[in-house]
DNA sequence: CAATACTGCGATCGATGTTCGCAGTTTCTA
DNA sequence: TAGAAACTGCGAACATCGATCGCAGTATTG
């Protein structure tokens, strides 16, 4: 693929002249997603993906403008996993809450999503459908401006990411780095300044925490109710 | 600096035996922050920072365990810029709203902060003070659990980042990539599916947008009010 | 049957984070 | 006071990354 065109989505999947490409974008995307699921986003290097496909790194550039494009494909693949077919109840808060939970679930399924730098506007086709769906859910809220609606959806997404992150972090055993920081925190707190923090650090371990699902549901409804109407 | 110890903050600034270090961590941090302010976080490479200090890359590793540690130092330097000296009003919503605005301002001053991968728990001394301050603001809310308080602060931070991002994005001219995606969006929307999105894209340009400050204030108060008490 | 436009890919470039090892310097110990 | 020990500065080098170039081979066009 040469240079000029803008996004991956503008580039044609194959040229009209030469031999048929051996691979598909969908194929490459699937491999990349699987790799990221298994070993994290950092493992998705051109070389690694190419090796997984049994070819050299340079070949991938026939399908994709670069690593960023590949990540865009991956993101939209995950966006496509989110089910938008369910009927809307007609209550913006309720409908957006459901959408938020689906979003969070997708991110739990693909933890590397949280490592994607959140530059906005990388909207592939599925992400566009997603956005439209969110706006449809917000249609009953006639008093809101378009900007307010977009911000509401953005906040909803941000909350989904936030909770996905804490849920994942708690689920997995901490990194060496995280452990070191935890140790450092307890040590600093032991010095006596930061009494409030001390109270929390002490009570950190016990209790299996409130059920995540329920907690997230309640919180997102509260926030959305505060933003809508 | 050898390997074993945990965080940067645990490592002593200098050893007790050899010659006095030529440079300071604070010095290095300042250079790195200035560089990131001017050219973005990606410009903060070991080589670049070293060059800015007039030395070789390897020298930096006497002061810092690696690039991650350097970023940790940078983050905490910014956290230290946030003014926590103002007296608390006693109203959690009000006090956290003020804190949120200070946080957002700091991120506007250092846009690269939004490019730092948001792994949690990288709390340097200033960040710890910040957290304690937030908890102090939440002290009147006696009905909240510790976990709920932490989540409230996390949400507050997330919103600050969210709005800082949109504000910065709007302020700066779009990247080539962003422009390409914007063009692609209008093109997709022109196909007719996505009527709601079409309505928004059409009205995108006009209007200098509502004053950011006011909008953010109102929104964060709403959200916080929904979460507290 | 050319001419054309494409595909696959080995070789390679420049940049990155990081490590090694050595020479020089300061402090501690006996 | 002498020597060992611990540290600092840093040139050289390694592994890995994204990306480009150019050539050989292949399908389509006219």
From TrEMBL, chains A, B:
Annotated region described as Disordered, given as residue ranges: 1-21
Positions of the DNA-binding region: 45-64
Residues of the HTH tetR-type domain: 22-82
Coiled coil, from the record: none
Alphabetized Pfam families for the sequence: TetR_C_1, TetR_N
Record-given protein name: TetR/AcrR family transcriptional regulator C-terminal domain-containing protein
Organism: Actinomadura vinacea
Gene3D superfamilies the UniProt entry points to: Homeodomain-like, Tetracycline Repressor, domain 2
Keywords on record: DNA-binding, Transcription, Transcription regulation
Alphabetical list of InterPro entries matching this protein: Homeodomain-like_sf, HTH-type_TetR-like_transc_reg, HTH_TetR, Repressor_TetR_C, Tet_transcr_reg_TetR-rel_C_sf
